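INFO  loader      accepted 1 record
INFO  loader      residues=211
INFO  predictor   begin
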Amino acid sequence: MIIRYKNIELESIKHHHIEQIRNWRNLETIQNKMIYREHITSDEQEKWFEDVVSKNKLFFICKIEHKPIGLIYSDNIDWQQKISYNSGIFLIDSTIYGTGYPILISLLFTTCGFNFNLRENIVRVLNNNDNAINFNKSIGYVLKEEHPVYSIYSLKKNDFFNAFSKFPKALKITDTIEFHFEKTETDHFIQTILKEENIDLGADFKIISHY
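INFO  predictor   done
INFO  writer      dumping tokens
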């Protein structure tokens, strides 16, 4: 699947992406923002990818103007309960911080998830990551559980769209979002959900199937 909005592109990860992701993930600047901070080997990354190619896991390379800048994901989705139990993002291009792109990418991904009929999104955030905590609260997340190192926050669909409606226009989704579905098991599964649950994405979304 590829999700496009203006000059932002979210591309489902493929095998050829995994070494780049591993190198990103092993950067000290990225490790310091993660709960799991051990060095990841090539073999471990191969096993991780085998697990990631699943209906309940969505991992996307983030791109701006076709340039890869990081990863965004939901890696434990219960489609029956309509809950994503663990989502996150990391961006490795420091030049985009302060541009609005990190916020817009997160809002785009969250918008798509809720329009796919998810009703709740759960994240784990390090207790010392003030930027992430403040942003999550600004879009409707509420504290669910506190732990010594990290805390769990929950975002309900209605709370998100209520908070989103108050964002400045520059950070709102004001143009068409394109979904390019590819010939994969996961993409077919999501299209089946849209059809079986009679989900109408409306005029703001354009579905394109590459079969």
